[in-house]
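Researcher: Quick sanity check before group meeting.
Model: Go ahead. Protein one:
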Amino acid sequence: MKKSILLILLLFSGITALATETKITVRVKAKDAKFIGSSLGGAHVIIRDKTNNRILAEGKTSGSTGNTDLIMNTPKRRGASITDEQTAKFLATINIDEPTFVNIEVLSPFNNKQARVKASTELWLIPGKHILGDGIILEIPGFIIDILKPRTHQYISLNTVKDTPIQVKANIVMMCGCVINKGGLWDSGDMEVKGILKKDGEHIKDINLSLTETNLFEGNIAVDSAGNYELIVYAYNPESGNTGVDKVNYVIF
């Protein structure tokens, strides 16, 4: 019995010894912006063996959004890095004993479900052949939009809004959390931000929203009847193709 156990242990240790530590860096970058890191809660990364869908590594990117000048303003040259030591990443260490075809999937922004996007790619990992430096970079398009006013399922008396329009407030940032302001690197003037108002399922009107302070867009809704209302706020940048949406339902009684 003891010999059998010893033989199994020797066989297991032999198999383990064949596995080679292989490191891979995964980074997640917002389209037309910077990297997604700790300030936004990180992007969730899952690396799977394509043969059996087994998870080989899983975790979140951490670190800074990166060097703005290097990422956004420096002309790109083949082989030149766009990251530094502080730039957000997920470093996976995987033990494999033969070339392994993997799927890398990222979910981001992980803590903002209404804006969450999934991006993925596939590649071969070779035992002991590390993929470091900039590593594998996956891009996440869009905007993160949070409607602040009106509140979800808020009940508003018709008497209070007959003479005073309902205020609309929406916080909008890039997918890395980078700020939007007037005349800045991410210029509000390049973006179309509107609200689509529905009552009892029927479209009523569109509302223009404009920047009032960093990341904050505001507008007003005039209503004259009770009902169940839905407000859809969207942002669109025709140059980059970035889009984003948030929705809220409220009641006028």
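Researcher: Fine. The other one?
Model: Protein two, sequence then structure:
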Amino acid sequence: MASEQTEPTKVLWRRLLHLVIDGLLIGTTAILLGLVVLFGLTVGLARWITFDVAFAVGVVFFVAAALLGPIVNEVWIPHRSRSGASVGMRIAGIQVIMLDGSKPPLKAFALRYLLMVVDGMLWGLVGLVVVLRTPRRQRVGDLVAGTVVVRRGSVDQPVLPGPDRDLGAVPETELALDAPKV
């Protein structure tokens, strides 16, 4: 009998919330950066630069922010932070840890990011199915990188325990009737 905290949908909603928040953050940043550059070049350098050139430079800054933003947010920020979480993960109350409970290295975050291509296939349906079908609610990137997404605050534990309703990412196992409860 699974507890309320271990329902697959609860974990899924936290992960989806993090993706929405991160997407809005990166998209808004890219648009604002492009507009600021466009406006700055158009107004500040109006005598030397035409609107067409300013627009092209603004588009270049927008594209650069749109391409580099996800890498910074999904790889660099979690790697450099103590919590192992992007901005959206912090707000959603989740973080990434290795299966042994340690903080993931840069390589693990990079693998998770690169394999988002696989998880995002068919409008994210592949990732959704994999998360719902794996015992620790891992997507393909997590499986390959050896990471798991858990609720924030569980990093202090030396080893990631077996299924535990307090982590929120792993379902509760059924105990045999004659097995002693620990």
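Researcher: One line on it for the slide.
Model: The helical segments are 8-44, 51-80, 87-92, 106-114, 116-119, 125-133, 140-145.
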